[in-house]
TrEMBL record:
Segments of this protein annotated with the region Disordered: 1-51, 97-126
Originating species: Dentipellis fragilis
One GO cellular component, as annotated: mitochondrial inner membrane
Function text: Required for mitochondrial cytochrome c oxidase (COX) assembly and respiration.
Organism superkingdom: Eukaryota
Identification of the protein by name: COX assembly mitochondrial protein
Length: 126
């Protein structure tokens, strides 16, 4: 069944044409610099990982390098060819994080024990 132009159609807004789209120029402009020349931005072809993460985690450096090398091939990057390397990197980073948390917990126990002993020694003389 066809509708005539005089009848309102159900579910269709009468205020805008059926195929209207927002123009790109009407989208908001971000307040930060964008693009390959912007400071602290990484272009697709730069092949760099987040430098802070890769420098701090030298145990996983081999995996960072492998992922960077894989991402240099855009076909592999965009078709999931680098997914296994990324999963291996995530696993390495997670295990390193767990080990670091464990070390920090043990260090905190030692510091707490020293602090409690110092307070005990301080109050013994009262």
């Amino acid at each position: 069944m066809q509708h005539s132009d005089s009848e309102p159609r159900v579910g269709v807004s009468q205020s805008s044409p059926p195929h209207s789209h927002r123009k790109l120029s009407s989208l908001p402009v971000p307040p930060w610099p964008v693009g390959p020349g912007a400071p602290n931005s990484l272009s697709i072809s730069s092949g760099l990982m987040h430098t802070q993460a890769s420098e701090k985690r030298s145990a996983c450096q081999e995996l960072f390098d492998a992922l960077n090398q894989c991402h240099d091939n855009l076909f592999l990057k965009w078709t999931g060819g680098c997914n296994q390397v990324k999963l291996d990197l995530n696993q390495c980073l997670h295990s390193e994080s767990v080990a670091r948390s464990s070390r920090n917990r043990e260090d905190a126990k030692l510091r707490r024990a020293r602090r409690e002993q110092a307070l005990k020694d301080l109050h013994e003389n009262d």
